[in-house]
Design brief:
Elements: E1 2-3, H1 19-36, E2 58-60, E3 68-72, E4 75-80, E5 83-87, E6 93-98, E7 104-109, E8 112-117, E9 122-127, E10 131-136, E11 141-146, E12 152-156, E13 164-168, E14 174-179, E15 184-189, E16 196-202, E17 206-213, E18 220-226, E19 230-235, E20 241-245, E21 248-252, E22 259-262, E23 267-272, E24 278-283, E25 290-296, E26 302-309, E27 311-317, E28 320-325, E29 328-333, E30 338-343, E31 349-352, E32 358-361, E33 365-369
Antiparallel strand pairs: 1-18, 2-33, 3-4, 4-5, 5-6, 7-8, 8-9, 9-10, 11-12, 12-13, 13-14, 15-16, 16-17, 17-18, 19-20, 20-21, 21-22, 23-24, 24-25, 25-26, 27-28, 28-29, 29-30, 31-32, 32-33
């Protein structure tokens, strides 16, 4: 790692064609899209909670194309080509926001959520009852992430730099901007506490992870991962960074060399990164159906694994992981002990919640499960 005394990387992006970098960025986006439609449905945050009973059996909604889902304090947030719908834990609709999205994406954390058009310019920051911020970005949106305190980090393109990250407060006020001149911005992560921000970028040499303080204009730390294309990163509980590429899992700690755990020739099908649990579903063959769910510890090593077949979706929250297949929904704890199992069919997505409950979503409804049933 190296320290750089600057808030912004003032070296502007070159105006000449940077074909290699653009190919790398496109490759990262394609990997994320190939994993699960938008890539956002497999990225979740983790907190400790035990299984509880659900308040309603089902949520009923009317969505447009490419729906994606996120937890909203035991309820459900749904984004699609037609906009955003939010339901409380009793199934009552609290938000119905109409706006157009070509590639809808969604993320939530601790009662706040963000819905946005991946590659477009529309974004909505919301809580369980209201829209907090309606944003039409100046440049295409690359990704967006919610912090535990409700802060929002939005990654966009920028005509003068290689991307920009803007941080908004939980009330929707802009509080920080960072411009990248060294690498193309892919994503940003916010920790549970403190004022740090981590930004994942792609350079000519590989991947570059930048950590900085959002209230200290003179502090910046960067880590280079040569020859590797990281596709996502998140803070762990111990303030390290967990990251994933198509071929390996990484733990990156300040002042230490990154720890890499290779996937051993297996193919990444799905992943979840977060504070208490980091997991990946790895297939034996690229076009196959058989593989394994692997949990990684805070040192970056494989902790435990179990067999998975016919995966449809993966979601994690707290110390639990929910695995949806063609005919079953299984909830595991962080040791991959089977907490609950259900025979299901017709669902396309799964949403693990902080309270230990889980929902499986279909075309126009989502069904709740307690998370500890058999």
């Amino acid at each position: 790692m190296s320290r750089e005394r600057a808030k912004n990387e003032n070296k502007r992006g070159e105006l000449q064609p940077a074909l290699l970098i653009l190919v790398l960025v496109l490759a990262a986006v394609l990997v994320i899209l190939s994993l699960d439609g938008t890539g956002q449905k497999l990225i979740s945050r983790f907190r400790n909670a035990g299984p509880r009973e659900v308040a309603t059996d089902c949520f009923y909604f009317s969505l447009g194309k490419d729906p994606v889902f996120a937890d909203m304090s035991g309820g459900l947030a749904c984004a699609s080509g037609n906009g955003l719908q939010v339901f409380d834990k009793t199934g009552e609709q609290t938000i119905n926001e109409l706006f157009m999205m070509e590639s809808p994406a969604i993320a939530s954390r601790n009662g706040h959520g963000v819905a946005y058009d991946l590659g477009g310019k529309e974004l909505r920051l919301f809580d369980g009852s209201q829209i907090i911020l309606r944003l039409t970005a100046e440049n295409p949106i690359i990704s967006a992430e919610i912090g535990a305190d409700g802060r929002l980090a939005v990654c966009t393109g920028d005509s003068g730099y290689k991307g920009r990250v803007t941080v908004y407060s939980e009330t929707g006020d802009e509080m920080f901007r960072w411009y990248s001149g060294e690498g193309y911005v892919l994503s940003a992560a916010l920790p549970s506490g403190g004022n740090e921000l981590a930004v994942l970028t792609v350079t000519e040499r590989g991947s570059r992870l930048v950590r900085l303080h959002t209230d200290d204009e003179e502090y910046l730390v960067s880590t280079e991962i040569p020859g590797e294309l990281l596709i996502d990163a998140a803070f762990t509980k111990k303030n390290a960074i967990a990251a994933v590429s198509e071929t390996a899992f990484y733990i990156i700690k300040e002042g230490q060399d990154p720890v890499k755990t290779d996937f051993g020739g297996r193919y990444l099908r799905a992943y979840a990164l977060g504070e208490d649990l980091n997991a990946a579903v790895l297939l034996d063959y690229r076009s196959g159906f058989a593989g394994q769910l692997t949990v990684y510890n805070d040192k970056g090593a494989e902790e435990t694994s179990c067999e998975v077949r016919d995966l449809t979706a993966l979601s994690s929250a707290g110390r639990y992981a929910a695995v949806l297949t063609n005919d079953s929904l299984t909830v595991y704890d962080s040791s991959l002990y089977r907490v609950g199992s259900y025979r299901v069919s017709g669902f396309s997505d799964v949403i693990m919640r902080d309270d230990g409950t889980v929902a499986a979503a279909a075309e126009n409804y989502a069904e709740n499960f307690a998370g500890n049933g058999d």
